[in-house]
Amino acid sequence: MKNLNICIIGGGNLGRAIAEGFLKAGLPAGKLVITRRRPHLLEDLTKKGVRVESDNAAAVIGADLVILAVKPYQAEGVLQGIRSSLIPGQMLASLMTGVSLESLKSWLPETVIPFRVMPNTAIALQESMTCISAPDCNDEQKEVIQELFETLGKVIYINEELMAAATVLGACGIAFALRFIRAATQGGIEIGFGAEVAQEIVAQTVKGATELILQTGHHPEREIDKVTTPKGITISGLNAMEHQGFSSALIQGLLVSYNKINNG
So where does NADP(+) get bound (predicted)? Predict the structure, then answer.
């Protein structure tokens, strides 16, 4: 990874998060270029040694990997703007929701290899769940991209038709999980804790629950069974939540977000 020259087109929230994640993972700042129309907004990265550019076409020169972190509606214009600066063998990773590999290939030179990459904002903390689709890459390129993004969390390769679902479950899922944390914190305040203490308890509890699943591979219900006893307080609370539609509301939220991606 440390020998890879990386250019991030788009220094907004996601582009910045990726840059910060790479720096924490040990990528030398001198190997990283990031662009933004108003470069002064990335002054903190400049101070760390990252090159900040306002000219996308100039930024991609010499890059082994170009990461596109702009809005989907900007895709064609941005790619047309850098097309003449791209060279054979460069890889391009698109983080744009809803922009297909077919569209990317129509805007790119044939010799540039496109990837669709869907991380989430935990990438800045090296805790992303990143889904990748790249049927046209070779094994070496696949390994390079996987190793790179594994420095920022977990990585899986999926078929492109699952990208919309991956966006909802992995990227939007950050917001859904945080909404649970907020609601549980509010409940904690109701039963007596101060806001900061309630949030700390809830956040650590959620982190622990997550690690139980990730480290054991158990189905969630297996771990739930360990803390539910006959006529106990846990099962009473769970049943009350289900009566209010907890699981169905979450599933419906996922479906609404998924349908919005597919139907616009």
Answer: 9-14, 69-72
Amino acid letter, 35:
T
Of 53, 62, 3, nearest in space to 28 by CA: 3
The counts of H helices and E strands in the chain are 12, 8
Q: What is the pLDDT of residues 23-39, one digit of tens each?
A: 988 889 999 999 998 88
pTM of the model: 0.87
10 known ligand binder: yes
pLDDT, tens digit, 9 for 90 and up, residues 67-117: 999 998 999 999 999 999 999 889 999 999 889 999 999 999 989 989 999
- Any known ligand binding at 70? yes
159 belongs to an annotated ligand binding site: no
Is 30 annotated in a binding site? The answer is no
State yes or no: 124 annotated in a binding site. no
Point out which residues pair with 51 in neighbouring strands: 33
Q: How far apart are the first and last CA of the chain?
A: 37
CATH of domain 6-158: 3.40.50.720
202 annotated as ligand-binding = no
What is the CATH number assigned to the segment(s) 166-263? 1.10.3730.10
| pLDDT, tens digit, 9 for 90 and up, residues 197-213 | 999 999 999 999 999 99
